[in-house]
Amino acid sequence: LSLKFGDIGNLQGLVIRLLLSTSYYQLSVQNWFSLHRLQLLYNHSVQATFNATGIHAPATYSFHCEHVSSLQRYDALLVPSSANDLSQLWEVTFIDFQIQGFNVQEGHFAYARDCASFFSPAILMGLVMSLILLLVLAYALHMLIHLKSLDRHYECKASPAYFAQMKDSDMGDEKEPLRNSGNESYELRNQQFGKIYI
């Protein structure tokens, strides 16, 4: 696939050549197309050659990517073919790149297979945070399951304090004066104790 810029100023002699191929994969039971190589030609001579990596899609689809570039900040899908090649002097970046090599109908792209990875940094961070929360929840459940009850059990845990009541008429019979060092004091003959439950 050759892209020619026609008579646009200094780009008149520039041609971008994309080398595509199709292959049949038994695992997916369909044909896939791949972009293998990109060449930059100027005035009919090859100026730079880049090997393409990861640019492939089913033959009935198109391939779309926000950036197809030779720069590392865009994941470098285009790699110079040789260290001694002039490709090292070139920086190529396609923005909003979409290509379909075969089965083009009515001049429109088919459904696009995007190059965006499923595991983007945001998704990976969300998965890590979810894993941490699950670990904290599992630890809390483990602590609740193994929580031990108190060893001492009381007969009645919620009953109020109870004190025995004495009548005023009986107080005179039950009091006995104690005489010690001139002070008058009384001692109860029938001592009744109240029980306190906690």
Provide structural commentary.
The protein has 2 helices and 11 strands; from the N terminus they run βββββββββααββ. The protein folds into 2 domains: 2-116, no CATH class; 119-155. It is of the alpha+beta class and 198 residues long. The strands form 3 sheets. Strands 1, 2, 3, 4, 5 and 7 form a 6-stranded antiparallel β-sheet that branches. The protein is elongated. It has helices at residues 121-145, 168-174; strands at 2-4, 14-25, 30-42, 45-52, 56-58, 62-69, 78-80, 93-99, 112-114, 175-180, 183-188. The longest helix has 25 residues, at 121-145. The model has no long low-confidence stretch (mean pLDDT 76).
Tally of individual helices: 2
- Main beta sheet, described? 6 strands, antiparallel
What does the average pLDDT come to? 76
Q: What is the radius of gyration? A: 45 Å
Give the termini distance in whole angstroms. 90 Å
Percentage of residues in strands: 35-45%
Structural class: alpha+beta
Shape: elongated
User: Helix and strand succession?
Assistant: EEEEEEEEEHHEE
Strand segment count? 11
Stretches with pLDDT under 50, minimum 5 residues: none
Any idea how many domains? 2
Helix fraction by DSSP (H/I, runs of at least 4): 10-25%
